Amino acid sequence: MRYSGVSGSGHDIPLTAYHDISQPQTQNNTFDKSSSPSVDIKNDPPPEDVYENQYQSYPKPLGEWSRSHWVSFLVDFIFVGLSVLFLTLAAISISLDKTPASSLGYHTQKAITLAPTIFPIVFAAITGKFFRTLGLHWAERGVQLGTLERLIGCQSLFAAIERQIALRGANFFGLGIIIIWALSPIGGQAALRLLGESQRTVSYNSTIRFLPIELAQQDTAMSGADGVVEGWPSYGPTFMTALKTTRKLQNSTQDLFGNIRIPVLSELNSVSNGSWATVDYSKEVLYSSLLGIPIAGIPGDGNSSFQILSRYWTVNCPKLTYIPNFNTRPHYNKSSALLKTSVSTFIMQSTSTSSDTDHGSFNLTSISSEEDSDVSVAYCDLTYQDVESMVKCQNQDCSVIAMKNATTAASSKPVTVTPMINSLSALPQTTIGYLHHASKEESTLLEQWLADPIADFVSFKYSNLSTLDPGTFSRNMEVAYNTFWQSTYGAAYLTGNLSSNLSTYDNISTSYELPLYFNSSQASMVRFDGQEYHSNKAFGGILFIISFLLLCEAVASVALRITTLAPDILGYVSSLTRDNPYVGVSGASHLDGLERARALQALMVTLGDVNVGAEIGHITLTASENVQRLKKQRLYD
Fold first, then answer.
1. Exposed e or buried b for every residue in 381-410, given b needs 16+ CB within 10 A?
2. What gap in Å lies between CA 574 and CA 558, rounded to an integer?
3. Cβ atoms of 378 and 335 closer than 8 Å
4. How far does the chain reach from its first CA to its final CA, in angstroms?
5. Can you tell me the mean pLDDT for 516-525?
């Protein structure tokens, strides 16, 4: 049997003549009939190997599947499996939420890194094949050409949009196709964001211990004259170190030794009696001291939060005066005599009248120039402030996050004035150290610090404190006094390295007749226990839905292919040779487009004008050499 058509040259060309791509072609684009196998319809069917070699170009029932049909069917099942894999990936990722790190999670994360690359490829393969199969199925049963064009032509998002625009008019079917194709990048990005990893935390309660307020009264170096002198090696270097490290630590939440610094409550916004005031670290935070509160029991790994009680002094110096010829004025004879006999360039004199008080007052007199007779005098008041602070730590990096006024048993007890008087007497001499001269030659480290906390100490320089704004001086004096006051008690605990054995702090008193304990506070702790997974359920749900859609498409493609008898000829160039009188290759209508293309792949074709001699040309695909190339100015039907 021979399938023949009318070619441009008038010769019959059997389809099987194009099996061998090296087949010689004559100049007029026809083939020698003697070289083309022909089969008489009355003869018996050819042997099986001949049947296969001729690409099934003989009549056959549509219910019989060729090898290519079975391969296509196998590919469909592979697509079903791939869509199931993405469904499984989404399900596993969701199930791993808040579970510890595991081998399954590790391999799932590896798969997720590949998913954004693989998913769009699989999506395009499954969706494109589904639309082609659906279009073929509908074409066999009758369908509008516009609908068929939308199905067969939309093999990508851009192609779907192009078809919708080119065919004109809003079509919900076309919009639905565009929406389906738009799911491809969404699914890929959802797959990328399925699973994250973070530290696994375990919450528990514990206890921390902190330095008590009472220690400042009951176990301080300022309790007597001997303590002031003999205790200098413990408090003097600590105080001077704090002053010298101001530039580095002035905005730090912890001091040089890791103790937690306490902000000034009155500087916080929305402060009212008994209510918490939040510490806003986006703004400058003013601290009460350069030293912090020693706390034992803070874990080195994990987060913790707790509350502590502490005390600091507020200093207000509303009057700051420059007095020239100070030593010639009878009113200041006592102060002048003290300043003259002091080894320091300034003195602090208590003006408190009560032995037990909740506040105090003092005058500070400082030599302002090389002339010993010119001085600055500040008149200051002292008042203590008890506060409760809420502390939050990440590992051992801690900060006060909120504060409020506190009233405790210690708050109701008056402060003994003796340590205060001794503090005022010792403070001017604390930073002198070895600098004992026959004459005074510069302001002390503390005076220069009061003038400018971040400036370096300069020898042979005097600071004129009277030039400072009273508010600035009060602020600096408050920090300096609290720093000195904190350095005089509990010095053994200020320099860090506190023991993790909290029983060490059951009795810390060395001189007071009653035992003194570190205060205790309940702390909420969070310990890190390895890594755990966090699933993004929103993206997991998106990927699951899109993958389920792919599964439905893949299964539908299999079902439609089984129930569709028509060969897949839609959308192939080789289909343009079917029933085309200008190609001369006809017959074998049962072949799919790819099967026909494989048989005709050596055929030379041209898209050109076949009405060469006519006034109006005709454009078609032709295998004839008697064809004219298209021209811009020529008319075509």
1. bbebbbbbbbbbbeeeebbbbbbbbbeeeb
2. 24
3. no
4. 37
5. 84
Is 374 inside a domain boundary? no
* Continuous segment of H or E residues that includes residue 205: strand 195-210
| pLDDT tens-digit map of 328-356 | 676 676 777 778 778 788 989 888 776 66
Q: H helices of 314-416, where?
A: 333-341
Residue with tokens 């078809």: 163
More confident residue, 575 or 209: 209
* Residue 373 three-state SS: coil
Residues 378, 214: Cα–Cα separation, whole Å: 29
One domain for residues 264 and 386: yes
Q: What b-and-e string marks burial along 426-463, b requiring 16 or more CB atoms within 10 Å of the CB?
A: bbbbbbbeeeeeeebebbbbbbbbbbebeeebeeeebb
Q: Which residues constitute the domain of residue 219?
A: 204-316+382-437+444-455+475-528
φ/ψ bin of 163: left (φ > 0), alpha (ψ from -120 to 50), beta (otherwise): alpha
pLDDT digits (tens, 9 = 90+) for 110-135: 888 888 888 888 888 888 888 888 88
What is residue 376's predicted lDDT score, i.e. its pLDDT? Answer: 92
Which residue is it, tokens 């007597």? 224
Among 66-75, 142-151, 443-452, name the one with the lowest average pLDDT.
Answer: 66-75
Kindly tell me the sign of the dihedral angle through the C-alpha atoms of 553, 556, 561, 564: negative
